[in-house]
Amino acid sequence: MNPDPGSLEDLRDLALPAPVAFWPPAPGAWIVAAGLAAMLALLLRDLWRRHRDDAYRRAALAELDAIAASPQPDADAVARVSEVMKRAALVAFPREQVAPLSGAIWADFLAGSGGKTLDAPAMHRLLCKAYDAHGPGPAEIRTLIAQARIWVAQHRIAGKAGAG
Questions:
Q1: Is the pTM here over 0.85, yes or no?
Q2: Is residue 152 within 8 Å of 85, Cβ to Cβ?
Q3: CA angle, residues 38, 48, 94, in degrees to nearest 5
Q4: CA 82 to CA 18: how far, in whole Å?
Q5: Could you give the 3-state DSSP secondary structure of residue 61?
Q6: Cβ pair 62, 88 in contact under 8 A
Q7: Which end of the chain is less enclosed by CB atoms within 10 A, N or C?
Q8: Is the separation of the CB atoms in 154 and 115 below 8 Å?
Q9: Whole-angstrom Cα distance, residue 15 to residue 12?
Q10: CA 56 – CA 88 distance, rounded (Å)
Q11: Class of residue 92 by CB neighbours under 10 A (exposed 0-12, middle 13-18, buried 19+)
Q12: Who's near 142: CB < 8 A, 6+ residues apart?
């Protein structure tokens, strides 16, 4: 009798291929890894540049904190706050634009170059009041320091796209 080709006795297990090795990866994986490494390097470079470029902001904020830490702010505090902001502005903006500014024009410049959260009228009023006979009181000086901190942290640098 002839064996039946459809008999279940003739079935064999499937021949499985060898498992795919994890190493070495395919060429596409190397390309993707190289692209990710390049993007990470560019990101780190940009973060380092931003950190380095914002060193003047950190220094100015530290000086403003030192002025604010004084137990009783005096009339000289307004001049020191303005000096800190002028040094920060000289780093961020062209010297020809910032150096000659003083008084109301300086206050207008600060109000115009500050961020959206800066209280520009208060900054203008406090800087101009510093030269009045009475001068600002301690509460007004603290308000000026707070506004100066906002300006230092949020002003936009001229000529740099996306700076801040």
A1: no
A2: yes
A3: 120
A4: 75
A5: helix
A6: no
A7: N
A8: yes
A9: 9
A10: 6
A11: buried
A12: 68, 73
- Please give the average per-residue pLDDT across 43-63, as a whole number: 95
Among candidate residues 92, 97, 96, 84, the one with its CA nearest the CA of residue 158: 92
Structure tokens at 71: 């137990």
- 131-161 pLDDT tens trace: 665 667 788 888 888 999 999 998 876 555 4
- Angle formed by the axes of helices 55-68 and 138-154, nearest 10°: 170
Tokens coding 2: 């002839």
Cα first-last separation, the chain: 92
The whole-angstrom distance between residue 55's C-alpha and the CA centroid of its chain comes to: 11
pLDDT of 133 reads 59
